[in-house]
Amino acid sequence: MNREKMEAILAKIKEYDRIMIFRHLRNDGDCVGSSKGLKRIIQLTWPDKEVYLIDHDTAQYLEFMGPEDPEVPDEIYENALGIVVDTASEARISNPKYKLCKELIKIDHHIPLEDYGDLSWVEEERSSCCEMIVVFYDAFKDQLKMDPEAATYLYTGMVTDSGRFKYDGVTGDTLRMAAILLDVGVDTQTLFARLYLEAYEYLKFKAHIYERMQITPNGVAYIYIDRAMQEEFNLSLEQASACIGNLDSIRGCISWLAFIETGDEQGSIRVRLRSRFVHINSIAENYHGGGHACASGATVYSRAEADALLADTDALVKEYKETHEGWL
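-> structure tokens emitted (328 positions)
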């Protein structure tokens, strides 16, 4: 079935002379890597096609991947094929002009929240959307071209969305797709230096996290990053949000959350939810979000709502621990 969907996507790409690529708000390595990787593959394979990736929301830590295309007149979108990657719902597409495209394709690996687009290829069991793009390339490698630049984009998304291949969802297929990219040529030493080296000041922030983190009665680790803390340590929103990775190795805690005040007019608080064993995406879906079974995002609009989400997560973890064994 997925082979048929991939064949249909390839046929649409061949059909159109102009292609617009879109991705989700609050960029991460997977949506940037899959959008830039797909664009590069199309450009290498069909040099005469116009391919645009217009998004001015690139996260600071991903700036090394290069800028996107400048804005173009609305008529450029018309009669074009739109391809949206790594985005479960229309509300999360970062460039609203996707609606101007003649046809729309969705390529995603999240749990489906809604159907959109004229053609949809979703594999929620995949560790990343970048993995899906490599699957697509591998299926038609006799027709498609890839170079080290495209491989690096896609490898970036694979390693970041899979936690360097340690998260649930990583399979033998994931590693086989990664091997294809390494064979094409990825400078992993430079890539990992760009992704994971940290400034001295940020290390002091991490120490602050360990001093301020808390644990609920049933074992949910959490941290609240308010605007004052972000200003004290001179953090971007992306840097503050990355603190979720510092709570993932506490024995007995099978879920961990980070609440990050955004400072916007709505008073929104970004919530990053992570877990092992227990599925927490249903919690996120109840609080203006969604995502994967063990890695989701949500938004709340007050400390009271944040407390309610935390209480719901604590109750879910309590139930899981009472009904399951082997959760360490």
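The chain has a mean pLDDT of 94.
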